[in-house]
Amino acid sequence: MFAERTGYIVWFSDSKAARGLDKYGTLHYMSRKMQYAVMYMNADVAEDAVRNLQRLPFVRKIERSYRNEIKTEYEKNVPDKTRFYGL
Q1: What DSSP letter does each residue of 17-28 carry, written as one string?
Q2: Strand ranges (DSSP E) for the chain?
Q3: What is the CATH topology of the domain spanning 5-67?
Q4: pLDDT in tens, 26-73
Q5: pLDDT tens-place string over residues 48-60
Q6: Is residue 26 a contact partner of residue 37, using CB atoms and an 8 Å limit?
Q7: Using an 8 Å Cβ cutoff, are 7 and 68 in contact?
Q8: Which one, of 49, 48, 63, lies nearest residue 11 by Cα?
Q9: 60 neighbors 11 (Cβ within 8 angstroms)
Q10: What residue spans define the domains of the chain?
Q11: Neighbours of 37 (CB within 10 A)
């Protein structure tokens, strides 16, 4: 149903030129002060897009986001103590 998405953090040196990063994927957030952008793109075209991004003169470094590999389902092993402190 949904395509597999991959996140990338792109460090850049020119914030004006970095506005054109949305050609390569979905630009989620861009910090002008710290000079980085968070992008999401389809996993099947991510390799080609990263290769093209590295060729840009204003891109310093590209890091892959590990957000989709972090466990987000939690188990509650601690009993609920609020029921003991009722009125």
Answers
A1: GGGGGGGTSEEE
A2: 5-12, 26-31, 36-42, 59-64
A3: Alpha-Beta Plaits (3.30.70)
A4: 999 999 999 999 999 999 999 999 999 999 999 999 999 988 888 888
A5: 999 999 999 999 9
A6: no
A7: yes
A8: 63
A9: yes
A10: 5-67
A11: 23
